[in-house]
Amino acid sequence: MGPRHRLGLAVFAGAVALGQPWIPEFWVTLLNDIGLYALVAIGLVLLTGIGGLTSFGQAAFVGIGAYATAFLTTAQLFSPWVSLIVAMAVTTGVALFLGYVTLRLSGHFLPLGTIAWGISLYFLFGNVEALGGHTGISGIPPIAVFDWELKSGRALYYVIWATVLAAIVTSENMLDSRDGRAMRSLRSPVMSRSMGIDTTWYRAVLFMIAAQLACVSGWLYAHLQRFVNPTPFGLSEGIEYLFMAVVGGIFHVWGAVVGAAFVTLLKHWLQTWLPALLGRSGNFEVIVFGILMVLVLHRAREGFWPVLLRLAPERGDRPRAIDAAPPLPHRFMPRTGSAILEVKGVTKRFGGLVAIRSMSLGVRTGEILALIGPNGAGKSTMFNCISGITAPTQGEILFQGARIDGLGSLAIARRGLSRTFQHVRLVPNMNVLENVAIGAHLRGQKNFLQSAWRLDRAEERSLLAEAAHQLRRTGLAEQMFEQAGTLSLGKQRIVEIARALASDPCLLLLDEPAAGLRYREKQTLAGLLRQLRAEGLAILLVEHDMEFVMGLADRVVVMDFGEHLADGLPEQIQSNPKVLEAYLGGIE
After folding, report:
1. So what's the pLDDT on residue 116?
2. E-state strands within 334-434
3. Is the per-residue pLDDT at 448 higher than 50?
4. Residue 13: predicted pLDDT
């Protein structure tokens, strides 16, 4: 058990201990509030911290859960448990609609969109007569477990905190899985899609999970208070929920509990002590709270949970890859020497700029083809057209005999094409093993619900074993459990190659893989690429190191100003007058 889990269990054990009968009712009430807030904050950790989708509107989903059960249990006389199912179904429908509209936005438009629908739902609660208008709904019945009615806050205390624990455990399980790695890669959508990850689907899943956690919080709140009105579901509460997640540690599920506790206790103390200190009543706590939040964000930007983790004792235990797992199935490889990629007359325009003009090339299985040219020649644009990141303006691209131009990187990755990038794209706060396992995403089948309940463990062992195999193959076994962001640029490029190999491709696109490598590292990389070629893999290589290229490539294609300049064997390219003049500068 790592320090994160030991500390998390200590936090939860403390919460349970504080619910004992000798604890004053006031503290039980305060802890109930913390638990309800923590549920919403956990959803925001997943949505904002993991998925990179900032939402200020989560209080509206709390309101949906609260109002749905209030209306159904008072006006329709439904059981609270039936109302929970209906509330979650309603939340699902609303989240699907709002997600379809909102998640298509990016940049600052996304949080502005969440503010817009958060305000709209808040005013909807207060202006629908069936929901009690501004006065709200009272007389909500208590939750009953068999014949035991949970009428008091102390009776509901354990239900609330058991729900929080369930949310934490299932969230942690989900993040420690194939789908969890996909979710954590969403901040680099170009890389994610190139590895076969459906970013639209995973953004929607995170949005839905966050909405459902908020709904459950609202359901518990309604049966705890036995009364609801619109006040707790406005924009200011939505901002406060986001503060809790950020202050606790926006990248850490347990941080949601810490953030909820910190903000709740701080507000209570300010509301208690400031009027006594200043000798008058007023909303002074809002002013002080705002100033303190700014200071916290300056001094502890990662939140309090990472600070607590650094204080927790380390046992020095280190995770190990599972080597004994059953191997993953391999893709069918085309016959060696057959044409696997054909680029025919491809042109790419960006407005009035022509980046590629009538470019053609072909790659065969069991071959290394180098694509070279000066900076700005259009090599990376060609890579992007082939891998589906951008669609060509004209021309055809055939992969294994079928047209792929315009398909998109997700569909192309599924057909067996994988790539690296000119500018390294890793998830820096994940370890090297997990980064490489992202490449094997399409080779797994389990979904996020199965991973939440640990029903994916056999497949997960196989995925991690494949990632470990590729790391050993590329010479990075010793760095397997280091954070990817701490590696040198050269090693990060090797991690990208290992990630691409984990997808079991039949065509590998390498964009400047030798950049930043030392001489011996280049030699090791060249040996690996020769081995892959011998296994029948097709490799298309962009590289500026001519010594590396000429000693490795079977054929070379030269681009200049977006056009085909020359192609042939390495020795032919080295002696070609046009190439010498345009690029090589006299290498013989």
Report:
1. 94
2. 339-350, 353-364, 368-372, 394-399, 402-403, 417-419
3. yes
4. 65
For 347-391, what is each residue's pLDDT tens digit?
999 988 999 999 999 999 999 999 998 888 899 999 999 999 999
Residues 6+ apart with CB under 8 A from 34: 15, 257, 260, 261, 264, 265
Tell me the CATH number of domain 3-311, given options 1.10.3470, 1.20.5, 3.40.1580, 3.30.70. 1.10.3470
Q: Which helix (H) or strand (E) holds 26?
A: helix 25-44
- Asked if 51 and 103 touch (Cβ cutoff 8 Å), the reply is no
Calculate the alpha carbon distances from 263 to 150, 233, 238, 349 in Å.
27, 17, 13, 52
Beta-carbon contacts of 585 under 8 Å, excluding residues fewer than 6 positions away, are: none
- Identical fold between 338-416+506-588 and 423-504: yes
Instruction: Report DSSP letters for 284-296, one per residue.
Output: HHHHHHHHHHHHH
Most distant CA pair in the chain, distance: 92
**How do beta strands 402-403 and 538-542 pair?**
unpaired
Least confident of 211-215, 341-345, 438-442, 580-584: 580-584
Bridge partner residues of 339 (DSSP)? 364
Asked if residue 314 has pLDDT above 60, the reply is no
Which CATH entry fits the domain spanning 338-416+506-588: 3.40.50.300, 1.25.40.10, 3.20.20.140, 3.60.10.10?
Answer: 3.40.50.300
Instruction: Return d(Cα 402, Cα 404) in angstroms, integer.
Output: 6
b/e code 59-70 from CB counts within 10 Å (16+ = b): bbbbbbbbbbbb
Which residue would you say has higher pLDDT here, 376 or 437?
Answer: 437
Question: Backbone phi, then psi, for 145, in 5-degree steps?
Answer: -110, 105
Kindly compute the dihedral angle of the four CA atoms of residues 399, 405, 406, 412, in this order, to the nearest 10 degrees.
20
Backbone angles phi, psi at 394, to 5 degrees: -140, 165
Work out the pLDDT band at 586, boundaries 50, 70, 90.
Answer: very low
**Three-class SS state of 243:** helix
The second-level CATH assignment, the architecture, of 423-504 is 3-Layer(aba) Sandwich (3.40)
